[in-house]
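Backbone-to-sequence.
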């Protein structure tokens, strides 16, 4: 029985890997900029504007990381007088040799320098200088 579970788990993992590779290729064809030797684990989302995301060489993106290039609350703001045409989009740039932890959320208008680590399940709304470690919600310097 254990052998069947191992086989099913391998099939499931392979299916997820295949899905992420196809999704990433679609994002690249839609403008996502990927450096050399970037590792992207499963269930990573580049949002609806992947052309606003740039990832440097040798960077690793953990499972379930999310890149938010725009704010969904603008739909509500547009219902208010004087805010009918408001827009809230922004780039996300990740430097070289970075590690983005599992489940992290990176918001628009954020730049992560080279050699940085963003802890798992962090929410990053401010830029990170080179050679720093941030973590938490909201993510802060550690």
């Amino acid at each position: 029985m254990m052998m069947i579970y191992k086989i099913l788990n391998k099939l499931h993992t392979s299916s997820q890997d295949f899905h992420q590779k196809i999704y990433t290729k679609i994002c690249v064809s839609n403008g996502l900029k990927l450096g050399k030797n970037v590792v992207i684990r499963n269930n990573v989302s580049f949002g609806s504007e992947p052309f606003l995301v740039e990832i440097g060489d040798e960077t690793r993106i953990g499972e379930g990381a999310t890149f938010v290039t725009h704010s969904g609350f603008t739909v509500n703001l547009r219902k208010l007088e004087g805010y009918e045409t408001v827009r809230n989009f922004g780039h996300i740039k990740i430097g070289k040799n970075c590690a983005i932890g599992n489940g992290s959320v990176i918001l628009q208008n954020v730049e992560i320098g080279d050699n940085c680590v963003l802890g798992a399940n962090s929410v990053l709304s401010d830029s990170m200088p080179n050679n720093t470690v941030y973590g938490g919600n909201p993510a802060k310097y550690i």
